[in-house]
Amino acid sequence: MVPIADPLSFAEVLRRHRHAARLTLEQLAEASGVSARSLSNMERGRSRGPQHRTVTALADALALDESARKRLVELARDGRLRDHWTRPTGLCALPRSVGDFTGRALELAWTNDLVHADDSPGVAGVGLITGPAGLGKTTFAVRAAHALRADFPDGVFFLDLFGMSPHPVAAGEALALLLRALGVEDRDMPGDLPDRASLYRSLLEGKRVLVVLDNAASEEQIRPLLPGGSHGRVLITSRRLLAGLEGVRRLSLGPLPLAEATELLTGILGDRSASDGERALTQLAQVSGGLPLALRIIGNRLVSRPGWSAAELVARLANEERRLEQLSAGDLKIANAFGMSYEQLAGSARQLFRRLALVPGRDFDAALAAVAGGISAEDAWDALDELVDLGLLQDGASGRYRFHDLVRLFARDRLQAEDTVAERDALIETVASWLLRMATTTAGRWFEPAYRCPAGPDADLTELSSPEQADRWLRVNVDNWLGALRHAASSGLHSAVLDCAESMNWFSDRWMHAPHWYEVFTLGAEAAAALGDPARQAKQLNMLAWVHLVPRDDLETTLRYTAQAIDLATRSGATVQIALAHHHAGGALRRLGRLDEAIAAETQAAGIHKANGDMDRYCQCLGALGTCLRDAGRHTEALEQYLDLLALLNDDRSGVTPSVAVFTRPIALARVGECLGLLGRRAEAIITLTEATGLMEQAQLPVLQARSLETLAALLAEEGRTGESRHAYARAAEVYEDVGDTAEGDRCRDLAAASP
User: Fold this and answer.
1) Interhelix angle 334-343/292-304, nearest 10 degrees
2) What are the HTH cro/C1-type domain coordinates in residue numbering (predicted)?
3) What pTM was estimated for this model as a whole?
């Protein structure tokens, strides 16, 4: 049977026995030899656990039978344990909270919820706070503990477990420290871990206590330190994720937002912040990457050097090569904080960590990590997990990883210190070469009609088995392959640069408003010029003409590039490039209102492509010619042109590449819908545009989809279908916002709101 705790205290039982014996305090004092004042303290609960000999004397004076005597002795013993519990020992005391603590409102609310959550029998509420070095996990936990102190009348304890040191505190030693803080004498300390854990749990049973376990090393270290009761609470901080720790609530601490980072820096600087200027302080907060440790170092450096200005420190920190060196103040060094995590890594993970600093982009996946590390994909996954577990990498959506900016600088510093120049140069070449092959052969060629399904040397590693997968790879890795392209250009690898730029010709139509196409095709044109190949140079100039025609909307520059392309293509006999230049010139001339010239240019381009048997580009010219006719008010002719185009796209024997047909069909269909609307055939136009916008969404043509949705919305409004019109405008706004065009999105939302 489970023993039932006595509902009465020692004070209440003693008072009842005295009243039953009809004795006053003075009479019992005289009979027992215990002072009346001591007796009064006992009965009033001020002395809850008198010594055994005192209790025996009282039992004799009260003439208690054996059962009553035993009960009184046990109650006194329990009281002595409680006295040990509440006795201030100075051990495991909670550190002070910093006065300039800033932000973390949501995180503090999380700790408050943890404390006030419903108790579950037999389970202590445990909160695990994780995050990389420098994020202020300890400072946050201490702040939270001070804020919650009133909720824990039985005590708040803090223990540093030294999880990042070479020798973390063992669980048995940690228990000994906590037990001493609870009043257990060394002579009463159990010798082994299970007994210490049992005594620890028994002392905390039913108590409202908060235990802060800082800097935890492992699940094995933590488990024996968790109370078994439902009233206590535990906050654990760790750089490691401690994924095997069961029954805990998790909080991942992130960098401070810029506003809170600036506020913290202002608080550290105090009165002098006014003289430093808001702009300089914001720049310093940006350099810190939101790490409270970096902000404290920056603030302390300025406070300790009154002659420095914040602007001067901004200039010092602008140099990435010396930034880590500058982020130190006394014994506070940001590199030391990262170094403690680095020392915890296995040798293979250290090497991968260093080498990942040379990845050109801001994030990467396991395939690229494997190339950088010179290891298998399986080993890369294991090492990446270790790096994430220690907070040296951040893992995001869809299996991608990234450094914090300062951690990347630390990784670069370790690479320079531990790897030779030759090793670093070879690694840069390996990574850049792989990225260019992936972008050019494995991904980019997917979209060229003549290539069909590519079979590049690394296709098995990335499993790009469809245009959709190739599209995604190029988009999410754009910073990486673009960085590799820049490296190749600076290294004089002209053929590789030109091959990559050419492989992007067709893909660029799928991502036409990406900001980097000007750089890609400029590098391509420069590479072709260096190789002395005017035909391929004309091709790249045509792509630059397209960039200024579509994403940049710079029509005069478009015409300048097409003139250069026609000159080079004519001298080299590149008729395809002559036709492309006329096509791009036609687009610019149409938008400049020079419609007769535009129609002539598009007609000339279409004739060349048809004569060459290039039905894919012929279809492009037919569509552009239809647009010129539409803008010229020749709506019936434009409709016939678009219908002819649709017939070609729908004819399996026309010679149009299937992927080009899939891409072009929704555009042609939308143009048919527009012409039907202009001719007053609104019902047919609405049906056609509805189908076209759906196909555009499937083909990932967001800008064209948004514009067609606007046309559809206007036609629906004219038909009196106002609810559907509002919905179409709202959907257009969403699509614009998805591609970052908030101005157009706001305009469409205004149109939706204005619909009657």
Assistant:
1) 150
2) 14-69
3) 0.69
